[in-house]
Every structure is written in structure tokens, then in C-alpha cells.
């Protein structure tokens, strides 16, 4: 068998009579891997040096070219080359590299590329970590890895990937959760102040309860942060100990003893249940108003409860409106006719009719608003469409407008919870105060229908004020645009003759809390702050002893200063950040007060729920620890962009577990 060079030399030495054609020296790098042999007269074939596979080369004077030879090398289909590369990777202590032939063997074909992916070294651990992260992020069932369709799909991508079982992927998901948990632990250790907890209670069809425990705090840069900390299963959700157990478990697991400032929840709890939560604050966290900062109802649940009362009072007329919308939306002919009438009447409305989701009260409100704005079209539809049965009467439309009047402020306030990243208690002090004032006026109105709804709503608002007015008012006092002045003004409108007593309660509470912060204030020590000791620690002690009474007036000094202008874009946290040296103790107290959350909803898209959320049947079939790992890890991954932990860290955590 001749080599390419021998063929060349042989041709050159022939006489002109025997040399049919002069051949140039073969310069392509492909001939490093091929030889040429004559298999029949006037028929030559190229043979691969590695696998001895033959390819067409020439037939008479017709030469086949080298493109097909290049593909044999470039695609990595030569077993000898692939085997040699695999042995090289085994002997290589560095990261294995994919097989790449030497030289330029890329076929010059347009619109098509060749892939070496089939020969890329596979990392089984990394692939399993990515599957676990995919399941967590997209809330897929763990059992999907055992579904035949998924197994076939993975095999088509990478036949060498080892199949995983339910137990495998469950362990991988828990490992991912534990790796992400380390990041959360580090962030909690850096909290400069205290932490507030919210408890969002979910139900299930198995009569089990699930408590979502979320921590709220202000970080060292004076930014409000929230972290979902636990999803705890409660076997007896109706017991008085259910909520207090959740708080105790969270405090113990995350090392929050001495750091807890307030607790808020959205579960209808008995007085005994609330009293069992209170010691979690005042016993393990002395100096926090004797556990008074337990908020029995979050503002989102309060607004949903008010909306529910409105919808219950107007359920008959709402059903009529809903049936009218169904008539239009469930028939293409009816909807076309409705659009025609709307254009004829030139109704100036950009509202689009849509049926409501009765589990989300904001959708019912939007349906009523749109229908009310299009009532003239419904009047015309009544006379032109014989299929339109039982249309709303004029009095019904008046009732719809009254319902929308009550629902509008609730909708706008709750939308703030959903649209604002960190809504402040100051904002909702205004919203609740305004709602109560409006309801008081509506009760005294002449319309008995409106007055009846207003009376029922006001009872709920009054209860919310009794539970939360102290916390909301303290947050207002920490806003230099309002301080005690807004509390005095609003309470005089709300409580009338009892205003003085309620104002004094807030004033006494804020001073008592400040005194308690002063009591735990340690002497200034530059070395403790990471600075260089200057030998004046005794002087610091002397200052504390001789001017202690003056330091206690720090709060009064703040309250006596002139109110700041009420600019719309004012950042109250940034103001305290800039003034923390001027008010060293008060700024610490302000940090904790302003971190108190106004909503206990675990997720912002749940603020319009009519009823507590229900855990799906699949998750209730899993172990409680797995449920917690899946839900918490998903939130943490989404917060960090989905890529905060590496596969190696998850593998390490799994190995330790």
C-alpha cells in the first residue's frame, strides 16, 4: 500500500510517455490520517490509518476530493482517534477536554455545522444538580425523573447519562436547599438590628396546616429585606399552639434568640393562641414593650376581609352582572354584537369585559367596574338581543356603583402591596385611617344599602385599629415629615372624645421603647466597631455616666425639631441612614420599627386571596422536610437569579448530609 508521498514520487519519476497527468504534491492535513491504494485498475481508494475504513479517492481520471475524508476526521467517527483521545483524558489530571481533531477539518458547507457534543465528557453530578435546580425553580413534580417520556428525552440528548430515581432527585433537591441555606444564614448573621416575623397560614385537603415563616429586616445599607425562612407542617392547625410552635421552631433553627422584634400573622387565631406567641417576644427578647408587638391580622388579610364583606352584601346583584358578562363572553355572535353596539354608542371606555375568578376579589372588582362603564351598551343589548335574559335593572346598576365605591380604595391600597417592593407601615397608616373616615361618613348617609355595608366594614376596621394602631402609629412617629403631629391629628378624627387617651398610649409606648433601647445600650468602644483603640474607654464610660440623662432626651430632641417638607419621593430609611450619628440610639429603634411588615402574605401575588391558600395534593404527599426544601430553595434561587450556588457546593452539602 502506497503512502501519499510515495505516490507523488512515483508519478514524478515516470517518463512523459507513461505519465498521463502531472500531479501536485498533496498539501492537505488530511493525508496525515489516510493512505491511497489501488484496488482495481484505474480505481484507487483512500484508507484511514486508524480504523482502515476505505473511502472513494479516484476512478480513472476523476478524483473524488477530500471533503468526505475531512468529515470522517472532523465528526469524530473514527473509533481509533476517539479511543486515543479517551486514553489521553484518563491520563490527564486536569479537566477532561472534548475530542477536537488537529488541523482544519471543518466541512465547508453552508447552513450546517457539525457538533462534537456527543464526545464531551459528561459530569454526572453536575447534570443531576441541574435537574434538581430545574425541578425546584419550575415547581415540577419530583417523580418526573421516573416518567418514561423524560427518560427517553434525556437518553436522546446524552445516552451515557445515568438515570435517576425519585430518591436520587429528592436528595439532590435537599442538597441544593442546604447549600442555599448557608447563604441565608450568612445574611442573617449580618443583620445590624432586630428581625420581624410574619406567619402565612396555608390549609390542605388532608386537614394539615402549613405555616410560611418569613423574616423581615433592614440591612446595614438601610434597605428592607425579606427572606422566606421556613415552611412548617402543623398536624393540628386549629390548636392554640400551632402558631407559637412555628415561631419557636424558626427562632431556634435560625439562632434568632434576642433578635425578634414583632410577629404578624393572617390566621384567625384565638386569644389563647396570641398569648402563647407573646412570650416569644417579651421573654426571649426583653425590652420590647412586654410583647405588645404581636399583630393579629395583617393589612392584606384585613383588606381581603373587607372586600369579602362587600361582595357578600352585594352577591345577588353581582350574580346578575356575572350572568350578563357570561352572555357576552361565551358566544362569539353575542360578543360581536356587543362590540357593534359599543361602537355605535361611542362609549368612551377602554375597559374590557372579562369573567372574574371568584377566589381573587380584585377580578370581581374589575368585572364590576367594566360592566358599570358599559351599562348603556347592556341597555341596548337588552332591546336588540332576544337571547339576553334577565338583564340588570336600573336599581341594580346603582348598587353596582355603590359596591365599586367601597371596593376602589381597598383595591388601590392592596395594589400598593403588590406593586411596591417593600411597602411601609407609614403608607398603610394613611390608607386605614382614610378608609375608616370614609366609612364613618357613609354610615351617616341616607342610603340604607350603602349604610349597611359601611357599618359591617367599619367593625372590621375598628378591630384592626385596636390590634395594630400602636405599631402603625409608631412607624409614623419615625417619619420626620409627620412625627406625633399626624398621630394627634388623625386620632382626633378617628376616636373623637377618646383621642387623648389613644394619643397618650402611642406617646407612652414610643418613650418606653426608647428607654428600653437606652437600657441595653453598651458604652461606646471604638475597638468593638473594628476601629483602633485610642485608650479613651474610661472617658467613654465617664461620658455615659455624667450625661446619661441628656442622652435619654434624644427622642424628645427629635420630636421637637421642625417637620420636614412632605416631598413625594422622600426615602425615610435613607434619612435615618444619614442621621444615625446625630441620633445613635433613636436610629437603632427606628430601624427596627420601620422594618415591621404590614402584610403576612408569603408571596405578593396572594394579597387579593379571598381565602387562605391551600397546599396542593402532590406536595402534601411528600415529607414535610422535602416540602420546605422545595419551596424555600425556589424563593432563594429566584432572589439570587437562579445561580447562586454551584453544583460542587450542593454536592459537598449532600455528602456531609
Q: In this structure, how is the largest beta sheet organized?
A: 5 strands, mixed
Q: What's the assembly state of these chains?
A: single chain
Question: How far is the first residue's CA from the last residue's CA?
Answer: 63 Å
Class from secondary-structure proportions: alpha+beta
Number of distinct helices: 26
Ranges with pLDDT <50 over ≥5 residues? 1-22, 103-118, 522-532, 643-649
Q: Return the average pLDDT rounded to an integer.
A: 80
Number of strands: 9
How many domains comprise the coordinates?
A: 4
The portion of residues assigned to helices is: 40-55%
Record the strand order, biggest sheet: 7-6-5-8-9
Cα-atom radius of gyration: 37 Å
**Molecular shape:** extended
Strand residues, percent: 5-15%
Description:
Keywords: DNA-binding, Metal-binding, Nucleus, Transcription, Transcription regulation, Zinc, Zinc-finger. One of its GO terms (molecular function) is DNA binding. The chain is built from 26 helices and nine strands. It has 657 residues and is an alpha+beta fold. The protein has four domains: 4-74, no CATH class; 177-298 and 600-656; 305-419, no CATH class; 426-594, no CATH class. A five-stranded mixed sheet has the order 7-6-5-8-9. A four-stranded antiparallel sheet has the order 1-2-3-4, with no helix packed on it. β1 and β2 form a beta hairpin. The longest helix has 30 residues, at 448-477. It is extended. The model is unreliable at 1-22, 103-118, 522-532 and 643-649 (pLDDT under 50).
Amino acid at each position: 500500500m502506497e503512502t501519499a508521498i510515495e505516490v507523488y514520487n512515483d508519478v514524478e519519476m515516470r517518463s512523459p510517455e507513461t505519465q498521463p497527468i502531472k500531479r501536485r504534491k498533496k498539501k492537505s492535513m488530511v493525508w496525515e490520517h489516510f493512505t491511497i491504494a489501488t484496488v482495481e485498475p484505474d480505481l484507487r481508494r483512500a484508507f484511514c490509518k486508524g480504523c482502515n475504513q476505505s473511502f472513494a479517492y479516484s476512478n480513472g481520471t476523476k478524483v473524488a476530493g477530500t471533503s468526505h475524508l475531512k468529515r470522517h476526521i472532523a465528526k469524530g467517527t473514527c473509533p481509533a482517534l476517539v479511543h486515543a483521545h479517551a486514553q489521553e483524558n484518563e491520563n490527564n489530571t486536569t479537566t477532561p477536554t472534548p475530542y477536537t481533531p488537529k488541523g482544519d477539518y471543518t466541512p465547508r458547507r453552508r447552513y450546517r455545522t457539525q457538533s462534537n457534543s456527543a464526545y464531551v465528557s459528561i459530569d454526572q453530578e453536575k447534570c443531576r444538580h441541574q435537574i434538581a435546580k430545574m425541578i425546584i425553580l419550575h415547581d415540577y413534580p419530583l417523580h418526573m425523573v421516573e416518567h418514561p417520556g423524560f427518560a427517553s428525552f434525556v437518553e436522546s440528548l446524552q445516552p451515557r447519562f445515568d438515570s435517576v430515581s425519585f430518591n436520587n432527585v429528592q436528595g439532590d433537591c435537599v442538597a441544593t436547599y442546604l447549600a442555599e441555606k448557608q447563604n441565608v444564614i450568612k445574611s442573617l448573621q449580618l443583620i445590624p438590628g432586630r428581625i420581624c416575623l410574619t406567619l402565612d397560614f396555608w390549609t390542605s385537603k388532608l386537614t394539615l396546616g402549613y405555616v410560611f415563616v418569613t423574616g423581615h429586616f433592614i440591612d446595614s445599607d438601610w434597605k428592607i429585606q425579606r427572606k422566606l425562612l421556613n415552611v412548617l407542617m402543623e398536624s393540628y392547625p386549629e390548636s392554640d399552639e400551632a402558631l407559637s410552635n412555628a415561631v419557636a421552631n424558626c427562632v431556634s433553627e435560625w439562632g434568632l434568640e434576642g433578635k425578634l422584634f414583632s410577629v404578624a400573622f393572617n390566621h384567625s387565631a384565638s386569644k389563647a393562641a396570641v398569648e402563647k406567641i407573646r412570650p416569644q417576644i417579651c421573654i426571649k427578647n426583653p425590652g420590647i414593650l412586654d410583647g405588645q408587638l404581636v399583630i393579629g391580622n395583617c393589612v392584606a388579610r384585613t383588606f381581603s376581609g373587607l372586600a369579602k364583606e362587600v361582595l357578600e352584601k352585594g352577591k345577588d346583584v353581582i350574580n346578575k352582572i356575572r350572568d350578563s358578562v357570561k352572555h357576552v363572553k361565551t358566544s362569539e355572535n353575542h360578543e360581536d354584537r356587543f362590540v357593534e353596539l359599543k361602537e355605535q354608542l361611542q362609549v368612551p371606555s377602554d375597559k374590557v369585559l372579562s369573567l372574574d375568578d371568584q377566589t381573587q376579589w380584585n377580578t370581581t372588582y374589575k368585572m364590576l367596574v367594566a360592566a358599570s362603564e358599559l351599562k348603556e351598551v347592556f341597555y341596548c343589548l337588552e332591546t336588540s338581543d332576544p337571547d339576553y335574559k334577565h338583564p340588570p335593572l336600573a336599581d341594580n346598576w346603582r348598587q353596582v356603583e355603590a359596591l365599586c365605591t367601597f371596593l376602589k380604595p381597598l383595591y388601590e391600597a392592596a395594589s400598593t402591596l403588590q406593586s411596591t417592593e417593600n411597602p411601609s407601615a407609614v403608607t398603610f397608616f394613611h390608607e386605614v385611617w382614610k378608609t375608616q373616615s370614609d366609612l364613618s361618613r357613609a354610615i351617616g348617609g341616607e342610603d340604607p344599602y350603602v349604610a349597611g355595608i359601611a357599618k359591617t366594614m367599619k367593625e372590621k376596621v375598628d378591630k384592626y385599629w385596636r390590634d395594630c394602631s400602636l405599631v402603625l402609629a409608631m412607624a409614623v412617629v419615625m417619619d420626620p415629615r409627620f412625627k406625633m403631629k399626624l398621630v394627634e391629628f388623625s386620632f382626633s378624627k378617628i376616636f373623637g372624645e377618646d383621642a387623648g387617651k389613644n394619643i397618650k398610649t402611642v406617646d407612652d409606648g414610643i418613650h418606653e421603647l426608647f428607654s428600653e433601647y437606652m437600657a441595653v445600650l453598651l458604652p461606646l468602644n471604638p475597638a468593638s466597631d473594628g476601629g483602633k483603640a485610642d485608650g479613651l474607654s474610661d472617658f467613654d464610660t465617664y461620658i455615659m455616666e455624667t450625661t446619661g440623662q441628656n442622652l435619654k432626651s434624644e427622642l424628645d430632641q427629635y420630636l421637637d425639631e421642625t417637620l420636614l417638607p412632605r416631598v413625594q419621593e422622600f426615602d425615610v430609611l435613607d434619612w435615618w441612614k444619614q442621621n444615625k450619628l446625630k441620633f445613635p440610639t433613636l436610629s437603632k429603634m427606628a430601624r427596627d420599627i420601620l422594618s415591621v411588615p404590614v402584610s403576612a402574605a408569603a408571596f405578593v401575588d396572594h394579597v387579593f386571596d379571598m381565602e387562605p391558600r391551600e397546599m396542593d395534593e402532590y406536595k402534601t404527599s411528600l415529607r414535610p422536610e422535602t416540602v420546605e426544601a422545595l419551596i424555600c430553595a425556589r424563593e432563594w434561587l429566584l432572589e439570587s437569579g437562579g445561580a447562586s450556588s454551584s453544583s460542587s457546593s450542593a454536592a459537598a452539602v449532600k455528602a456531609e448530609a
